[in-house]
Automatic annotation (TrEMBL):
It comes from Cohnella ginsengisoli. Keywords: DNA-binding, Phosphoprotein, Transcription, Transcription regulation. It comes from the Bacteria. Coiled coil: none annotated. Residues 2-123 form the Response regulatory domain. The lineage of its organism: Bacteria, Bacillati, Bacillota, Bacilli, Bacillales. This is Response regulator. Residues 412-511 form the HTH araC/xylS-type domain. One of its GO terms (molecular function) is DNA-binding transcription factor activity. The modification 4-aspartylphosphate is found at residue 58. One of its GO terms (biological process) is phosphorelay signal transduction system.
Length: 517
């Protein structure tokens, strides 16, 4: 942390400097005194040259006093923290200091214990500010908005690292468990960042940046030590802290690199590499530069002709055996999710051609369901079961309505459970734990009987209940309604409400009072 000391008494500056340096040694942290100024005016002139993080200033000085200096800093450099020191515990001074956004108000003679607490508080504040600023810069680089400005000295000061490592991590938290429409930057990665920080040296940093598709997470390490032997423990810790329900993610990682400008191009390469390497139920960590050969999926033109003949004969047992053999072969060969998805869509297309029971829109819905199942299934066996269930529902593949009654009863029970617990957290995992069925069974049920994904169903139900409450109880606050339907954050509730209903809660309430709307 870079500190400027301001006091018109050199002896006071000397004592304060000695105590700060002593605490720096005791705390094992670098507190660097970058400037010592004997007037407020001098401090304002020195700030652009020394770029301090924090200013300690006496309150009573000629020309520009400590309060005036704090106010000027607030205007010119609002990110710089100011600590005011005074020999007089006057309420008026303290009130003016608060107006000037001063972090702390210390009394002379400065108590060492009090100074220690202030320094620790400032250190935490500066770390958070530095981290947030560096994360904003990384977002700007990835979006292409900061090209040509990375040679700026201020940017280089924020990124003092010798080099970097980038990892793209499969987001094994199911698509349905991600809060609908949640802004990417609001996802809380802080627990994972703290866990990884324990594996890094002091002043090294890591940043979690969720990808637009929410199926992956970008992790960037800023490192001072690029020794290859350090990376395997970091990689293992990354997989461990990004696991969900005991399921580890697949990770693709880059070689070390030195220039921040490289991260945008590297991110695109990592994205392609990850999508090509995910295998259901078999997490792995793969170097970006490692050679990769996609295993040939056994569904040749000859296999397809045989499959069509079985379809034409309506040979259900033969079709089941053929599909089951495909899944077994894909699992043995570690066939990637991307290739599996392509072939499952091809199989559905063949069913659609032979059964002629699906419209174009229905076929597109089935393709979407396949994508959802591939994303959420944890094993090939689970995917096979879910795929058979989907075919049976769409094409009466397993017989005329076999098992429909039981499935409908289960869906009705799930609907009742959701309605009774609408104000509680209702993730997909909550339902699987309560009803003792797989995630994919529940996904299929919602597609079959509500024609929506689970998240779409739950969100639309919550918004419908919110609308009913606004109509029936016009004096009820939005905050109360949000909590009733399961949202602890009123702003987030308003964001979802507007997205689903195409009007804000306020505008919707106004429309209730206008006949004809």
């Amino acid at each position: 942390m870079r500190i400027m000391l301001v006091d018109d008494d050199p002896f006071s500056i000397e004592k304060l400097r000695a105590r700060i340096l002593q605490l720096s040694e005791q705390l094992g942290t670098v507190f660097e005194i970058v400037s010592e100024c004997y007037s407020g005016q001098s401090a304002l002139e020195q700030m652009p040259l020394t770029n301090p993080d924090t200013v300690f200033t006496d309150i009573q000085m000629s020309a520009v006093n400590g309060i005036e200096l704090a106010k000027a800093i607030q205007v010119r450099s609002p990110s710089v923290h100011v600590v005011v020191i005074s020999a007089y515990p006057m309420f008026e001074y303290a009130r003016e200091a608060m107006k000037a956004n001063v972090v702390e108000y210390l009394l002379k003679p400065v108590d060492t214990a009090a100074l220690r607490e202030v320094l620790l508080k400032l250190l935490d504040m500066n770390r958070n500010h530095s981290y947030n600023r560096s994360k904003e810069i990384l977002h700007g680089i990835l979006s292409g908005a900061l090209e040509g400005v990375l040679e700026n000295g201020a940017v280089q000061a924020i990124f003092p690292f010798k080099g970097y490592r980038m990892l793209l991590i499969q987001n094994v938290e199911a698509l349905y468990d991600v809060r609908l429409l949640m802004p990417k930057r609001d996802v809380n990665f802080e627990p994972m960042r703290r866990e990884l920080s324990e594996q890094m040296e002091k002043r090294e940093q890591c940043w979690f940046l969720p990808s637009d598709d929410r199926k992956s997470i970008l992790l960037i390490f800023g490192l001072f030590d690029l020794n290859p032997g350090r990376f395997p423990p970091l990689l293992q810790a990354t997989q461990r802290c990004c696991a969900r329900d005991g399921v580890l993610p697949t990770v693709v990682y880059s070689d070390p690199f030195e220039r921040l400008e490289e991260i945008r191009a590297l991110h695109k390469r990592l994205f392609m590499a990850l999508s090509e390497r995910i295998v259901i139920g078999k997490p792995r960590a793969v170097a970006l530069e490692a050679e990769f050969a996609e295993p040939a999926a056994p569904f040749s033109a000859t296999d397809e002709k045989r499959f069509v003949l079985l379809l034409q004969k309506r040979d259900v047992p033969g079709l089941k055996r053929s599909i089951s053999d495909l899944f077994d072969s894909w699992e043995r060969q570690d066939c990637t999710s991307m290739i599996v998805e392509i072939h499952l869509k091809r199989i559905v297309h063949l069913f659609e051609q032979q059964y002629r029971t699906s419209s174009v829109s229905q076929f597109k819905t089935l393709e979407t369901r396949i994508e959802e199942l591939v994303d959420t299934c944890r094993t090939f066996g689970e995917l096979k079961e879910a795929f058979f269930t989907m075919l049976a529902s769409a094409f009466r593949f397993a017989g005329e309505g076999a098992g429909d009654g039981d499935a409908r009863q289960l869906f009705d029970k799930i609907e009742m459970y959701i309605s009774s617990n609408i104000g509680q957290p209702l993730s997909l995992q909550t339902l699987t734990d309560h009803f003792h069925v797989s995630r994919t069974v529940i996904c299929n049920l919602f597609r079959d009987y509500s024609h929506k994904s689970y998240v779409e169903y739950l969100t639309s139900l919550r918004m419908k209940i919110a609308q009913d409450l606004m109509r029936d109880y016009p004096k009820m606050l939005n905050k109360e309604i949000a909590e009733i339907v399961g949202y602890t954050d009123q702003n987030y509730f308003s964001h979802v409400f507007k997205t689903v209903t195409e009007m804000s809660p306020t505008r919707y309430r106004e429309s209730l009072n206008r006949p004809g709307e």
